[in-house]
Amino acid sequence: MLDGIKEWALGLGAQYGVNPVIFAAIYIGAIPFFALSISWLIRNFKRGKSIVLPVLCASFCFVSAYLYLAIVGKGIPAWVYVFIAVVLLYGAVSTVRKVRTQIQTNE
Question: 4, 42, 71, 105: which has the highest count of C-beta atoms within 10 A?
Answer without folding.
Answer: 42
